[in-house]
Structure formats: structure tokens, C-alpha cells
Design a protein that fits this description.
With 385 residues, the protein is of the alpha/beta class. 41% of the residues lie in helices and 14% in strands.
Length: 385
């Protein structure tokens, strides 16, 4: 089996991830912050150490500004519902995932907001001049930007985009689902207002983990209210971080696994991980470019890109290609719209979508060669009738 669906969920995980989860379930098991006994204290240390590991990864001074959620989708919902007011005007891009577009479309009806979409393409040519003009003229409340496209691997030029937003007093929410853990991200230097991430992709954690960083001075309204283990004498939600946004018993087993994933990144280095995945991606691009009738939807060679390669084969349905890769060659990919119809509209692959190959750190160059050979064979079958 060759697993090339890492943009959906990374697999396999480091062995330490499952071991950490089993250790919590076997030897700790208690709820953090809910009791005073030693097992509850041990569970609390897991959460604290995971926050500290995330703070180190993102070059942050205050781990308490990292909020745990189920995934990036939950983090984005908290941010959007917590900050957007009735009648606001919102800026987003043409390469967004439905984790952004669906909450925005709901808020469009619920709070009568206006949504402007900055055009984006597979070659990452965002029109920053147009963005600056819009930001000066349209009185935006906030902008939500996909750091890295799960369809094309396009990387948003955040160092150029975020100053435009700050200069116009526009709040920034960054969807880092695809970039966190893969790229070296210095949030102090980038200085977004909110950065959302998930644990189950390039952070090597288990599903059901994720969160967001909230910059000082930014106060989204909580999306969920309830027990936090703190201020139990009052029926009102605490107003301090992280408790304000973390109601209910947390996924401590999952966060133990996420901590192990973060430690794996620290041991290997995000630059080393990214370099390996970029090398595999480049092998795929070069090999697939030689196949007659195949079209790649990726950024330009000179642009930084994520380990994502989307393609179509003339005359062949994407679902059929994915089925053949799975059944005939044991190669796991993802086909279709990838929960990002807006992105596929932007690159003119809607409504069928593309075949997506997403190599990960545990893949090899030999895996890429086998994938190229398999796709070449599928194309040859079709061309030969």
C-alpha cells in the first residue's frame, strides 16, 4: 500500500503517538482541571505541555493564548461566529475550503453580512494591488485567508497580505489546516489576529485535535458555554484564556497523542520534514508532466508550495482514476472536490474536481516512482482503447 492522502489525514503516525494515547488511557485516565488528585494533575500536565509545545512550534511567548478545539473547522467556526457582527463586510479568497465558506454563507443569511472573494489561481497569483484597493475602499470587518490550498498546494503570501489588513484596521483569521507543522511558522513575526490549525495532518496528531491562537486584544465571543473546572462558584462563563473557550471535558487522550506528534516534529525539524515532502512533490510533478493528456494544477516551479499535486487526465473521470489506483495498484489518493468547491471553481475544475496526490514524511522516492508508473499505465490503457 502507498498512502498519498496526507492532505486529508497524515498516515502513518509516529509510533509514539499511539503509545502516548495508550499511556494516558492506561495510567492516567482522569479529567484535567476537574479534581485535585494526582491523576487529574497528571492529565492537566498533558494539556499544559501540549500548549507549550505548540507555542514553541509557532514561536509564541504565551502558551495560554492557544485554545484547544476538535479540529481547524471548529476553530474557524469559533473565530467567525465569535467576531462577525450583523451587517459586516468580509474579505476572503478564491481558494478557500468549505470550513470557511459554509460558515460564511450561513452568516450571510443569519447576520446579513457581505462577502467579497479575492480571485486566486493555481499559480498563486493573488492580485495584491486589487486587495489593497478593496481594503481601502470597502470597510471590511475582517479577512479570512487559507494559508495553503488543499487542492493545489498554493501558498498565500501572508507576509505581503497581512500588513495590508493591519494598515486598514481589518482583523485577520488564517486557516492553517494544511500548513501547521509542515511549514516553519513564526506567528510573532506574521502577527495574524487568529491562526487556526488541526492536529491530524502535518502535526502528526490523532483526529479530533486542533485549535487556534488568539492574539492579545482579540476577544471572540465563545461558541460553547459550560463547565471549565474553574470559577465553579459562578453560573457565568470565565472571561480569561484558555478557559473562556474550552468548556466541557477535553480530548486528553487525543492531546496526549498530539503532544507526541509535536515532539516528533521537534526531534526531526519542520524544515527537514518540509524539504523531504517538497522533494517528493517535485518528483511527482516532473514525472506526471511527461504523461500525454495529463494536466497539472499546481503553483509555478519558482513559488513555494505545499506537498499537494492535483491533476486530470483527458477523457478519464477522476473517480475512475482514483478507483484504479486503489484497486489495481494499492495507491490511496483523494478525488473530487476535496470539500473546496470554491477553489475548484477558481481553477476551472468544477464540478468534477481532480485527482489529488499528497505525499507525507513517511513516503519515499520509490513510492513516487510507483505512483508515476501507475498513472502512466492508466493513461496508456485509456489511450490504447
Amino acid at each position: 500500500m502507498i498512502y498519498l492522502d496526507n492532505a486529508a489525514t497524515s498516515f502513518p503516525k509516529p509510533e509514539t503517538v499511539a503509545a502516548a494515547m495508550i499511556d494516558y488511557l492506561t495510567n492516567v485516565g482522569a479529567s484535567p482541571g476537574r479534581s485535585g488528585h494526582q491523576l487529574a494533575a497528571a492529565a492537566g500536565r498533558i494539556l499544559f505541555q501540549t500548549r507549550k509545545a505548540l507555542a514553541r512550534l509557532f514561536s509564541l511567548d504565551d502558551p495560554g493564548r492557544i485554545i484547544f478545539t476538535e479540529n481547524a473547522t471548529s476553530a474557524l467556526n469559533l473565530s467567525l461566529f465569535g467576531l462577525i457582527r450583523p451587517g459586516d463586510r468580509i474579505l476572503t479568497t478564491g481558494l478557500e475550503h468549505n470550513s470557511v465558506m459554509r460558515p460564511l454563507r450561513h452568516l450571510e443569511k443569519l447576520r446579513r453580512i457581505t462577502i467579497d472573494i479575492l480571485p486566486g489561481t493555481a499559480t498563486s497569483d493573488y492580485d495584491l494591488k486589487l486587495m489593497a484597493e478593496w481594503c481601502e475602499q470597502k470597510n471590511y470587518r475582517l479577512a479570512v485567508i487559507n494559508h495553503a490550498s488543499n487542492v493545489t498546494g498554493t501558498l498565500a503570501p501572508l507576509p505581503a497580505m497581512l500588513p495590508i489588513l493591519r494598515d486598514n484596521n481589518i482583523l485577520s483569521i488564517i486557516d492553517g489546516a494544511q500548513s501547521a507543522g509542515c511549514l516553519s511558522i513564526d506567528l510573532c513575526r506574521l502577527n495574524p489576529d487568529i491562526f487556526c490549525f488541526t492536529g491530524h495532518k502535518s502535526l502528526f496528531g490523532p483526529p479530533g485535535t486542533g485549535g487556534l491562537y488568539i492574539k492579545p486584544g482579540i476577544t471572540p465571543q465563545p461558541l460553547c458555554y459550560g463547565g471549565t473546572g474553574s470559577r465553579s462558584e459562578t453560573e457565568f462563563q470565565p472571561d480569561f484564556l484558555p478557559d473562556c473557550y474550552e468548556s466541557g471535558t477535553p480530548n486528553t487522550a487525543g492531546l496526549a497523542g498530539l503532544k507526541a506528534g509535536l515532539e516528533f516534529i521537534e526531534e526531526n525539524g519542520s524544515k527537514k520534514i518540509f524539504a523531504h515532502e517538497q522533494k517528493l512533490t517535485e518528483i511527482l510533478k516532473q514525472g506526471l508532466n511527461k504523461i500525454s493528456g495529463l494536466t497539472l494544477f499546481t503553483p509555478r516551479v519558482e513559488d513555494a508550495m505545499m506537498p499537494v499535486v492535483s491533476f486530470k487526465l483527458a477523457g478519464l473521470n477522476c473517480s475512475e482514476i482514483g478507483h484504479q489506483l486503489d484497486q489495481d495498484f494499492g495507491i490511496m489518493t483523494r478525488v473530487g472536490l476535496h470539500c473546496a468547491p470554491r477553489a475548484h471553481q477558481s481553477i476551472a475544475t468544477f464540478p468534477e474536481g481532480t485527482v489529488r496526490l499528497a505525499p507525507g514524511f513517511f513516503n519515499t522516492e520509490k513510492d513516487m516512482e510507483k505512483a508515476i508508473a501507475a498513472i502512466t499505465k492508466i493513461a496508456g490503457r485509456h489511450n490504447n482503447g
